Amino acid sequence: MVRGKIEMKKIENATSRQVTFSKRRNGLLKKAYELSVLCDAQVSLIIFSQRGRLYEFSSSDMKKTIERYRKYTKDHETSNHDSEIYLQQLKQEASHMITKIDLLEFQKRKLLGQGIASCSLEDLQEIDSQLQKSLGKVRARKAQLFKEQVENLKAKEKQLLEENVKLHQKNVVDTWRGSNEHQEKYRVIDLNLDVQTDLFIGLPDRNC
């Protein structure tokens, strides 16, 4: 026979309530014992009936278990308290950061010329001073970058000039060598044309 699902509410009938209490109490004590044996766990169970009667089970000394529980809960509460303090500190820091960001945004709008209708003469003078300082820094940085670019261009120009001189010198040497070879060739030809011989065509002399 299938057991029906029991509705979780107080049993109105006193006899049925007592019977159910006895059965479930014994089952709970049995489960606590099995858990301590099977899993080598430190288990302590305290039950007070409706009439105030005490039922308990402990796998070890009940007082030591209770002391251990109190120490654990105390440490846990201390840890929770420290966590709450740390969380409050983070909230305060976040609030300060939001305030600083809002102030910086307000100053930024002023520097951009927004919302200055309500500014006093002193505020406007302070804004003008900040703008002058910022403009001076921007110009100084711009001049530095321009100077670096000019120096880089001069260095490249010098390198190109040196390379041009080397190429020119090499071209002159090659041209000189080619001219000398050409002149030597024609000199050899002229020498060959100027050679004189003692060749005589005719009868030889008798005296010879």
List the helices and strands and how they pair.
Blueprint: H1 14-38, E1 44-48, E2 54-58, H2 62-111, H3 121-193
Antiparallel strand pairs: 1-2
Overview of this protein structure:
This protein has 208 residues and is mostly helical. The chain has helices spanning 14-38, 62-111, 121-193, and strands at 44-48, 54-58. It has a two-stranded antiparallel ribbon with strand order 1-2. The radius of gyration is 56 Å and the shape is elongated. The model has no long low-confidence stretch (mean pLDDT 81). It comes from Camelina sativa. Residues 1-61 form the MADS-box domain. This is MADS-box protein AGL42. InterPro entries: MADS-box/MEF2_TF, MEF2-like_N, TF_Kbox, TF_MADSbox, TF_MADSbox_sf.
Keywords:
208 residues; two-stranded antiparallel sheet; 2 strands; mainly alpha
Low-confidence stretches: none
Radius of gyration: 56 Å
Mean pLDDT over the full residue set: 81
Distance between the termini: 167 Å
The percentage of residues in β strands lies in under 5%
Overall geometry comes to elongated
The number of helices is 3
Structural class of the secondary structure composition? mainly alpha
How many strand elements? 2
Question: What summary fits the major beta sheet?
Answer: 2 strands, antiparallel
User: Could you estimate the helical fraction of the residues in percent?
Assistant: over 70%
Listing every helix as H and every strand as E from the N terminus to the C terminus, the arrangement reads HEEHH
Strand order of the largest sheet: 1-2
Coiled coil: 143-170
Domain MADS-box: 1-61
Keywords: Coiled coil, DNA-binding, Nucleus, Transcription, Transcription regulation
Main location: nucleus
